[in-house]
């Protein structure tokens, strides 16, 4: 965390906001939590979240562009993994806020 006596770094805060925005959808939060447990292919995530493949793929692209997940194509299937497992720690913080 940067000290408060430093100038406002718009780029830093814009990048942080982009990550938070990527997490700002219930389906994406669910997928992040599922990926924290294990690598999954798009079809598995589609079944878990109950949305169509196109919608799940779009959500995964948002997470990938934010640097939260990475993908690995194997044959016709694309598998996703959580790049930054520490993001799940953020959920604990959110739960604390909700509990107040």
Fold and architecture overview:
The protein has a 3-stranded antiparallel sheet with strand order 1-3-2. The protein has one domain (10-99): Orthogonal Bundle (Arc Repressor Mutant, subunit A), CATH 1.10.10. The chain has 100 residues and is of the alpha+beta class. The chain is built from 5 helices and 3 strands, in the order ααβααββα. The protein has helices spanning 10-22, 26-37, 42-49, 53-65, 87-99; strands spanning 40-41, 69-74, 77-82. 59% of the residues lie in helices and 14% in strands.
Describe the structure using short key phrases:
14% strand, alpha+beta
Q: What is the count of DSSP helices, taking H or I runs of 4+ residues? A: 5
- Number of DSSP strands? 3
- Integer average pLDDT: 93
For the sheet with most strands, the description reads: 3 strands, antiparallel
The CATH homologous superfamily: Winged helix-like DNA-binding domain superfamily/Winged helix DNA-binding domain
Indicate how many domains the architecture comprises. 1
User: Numbering strands along the chain, what is their spatial order in the largest sheet?
Assistant: 1-3-2
| CATH fold group | Arc Repressor Mutant, subunit A
**H/E element order:** HHEHHEEH
Please give the alpha-carbon distance between the first and last residues: 25 Å
Strand content: 5-15%
CATH architecture identity? Orthogonal Bundle
**Helix-and-strand structural type:** alpha+beta
Q: For the CA atoms, what is the radius of gyration?
A: 15 Å
- The helical percent reads 55-70%
List segments where confidence is low: pLDDT < 50 over at least 5 consecutive residues.
none
Anisotropy-based shape = globular
CATH class: Mainly Alpha
């Amino acid at each position: 965390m940067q000290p408060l006596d430093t100038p406002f770094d718009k780029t830093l805060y814009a990048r942080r906001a982009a990550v938070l925005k990527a997490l700002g959808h219930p389906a994406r939060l669910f997928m992040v939590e599922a990926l924290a447990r294990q690598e999954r292919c798009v079809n598995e995530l589609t079944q878990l979240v109950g949305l169509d493949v196109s919608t799940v793929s779009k959500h995964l692209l948002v997470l990938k562009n934010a640097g939260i997940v990475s993908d690995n194509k194997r044959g016709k299937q694309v598998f996703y993994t959580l790049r930054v497992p520490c993001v799940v720690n953020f959920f604990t913080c959110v739960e604390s806020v909700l509990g107040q």
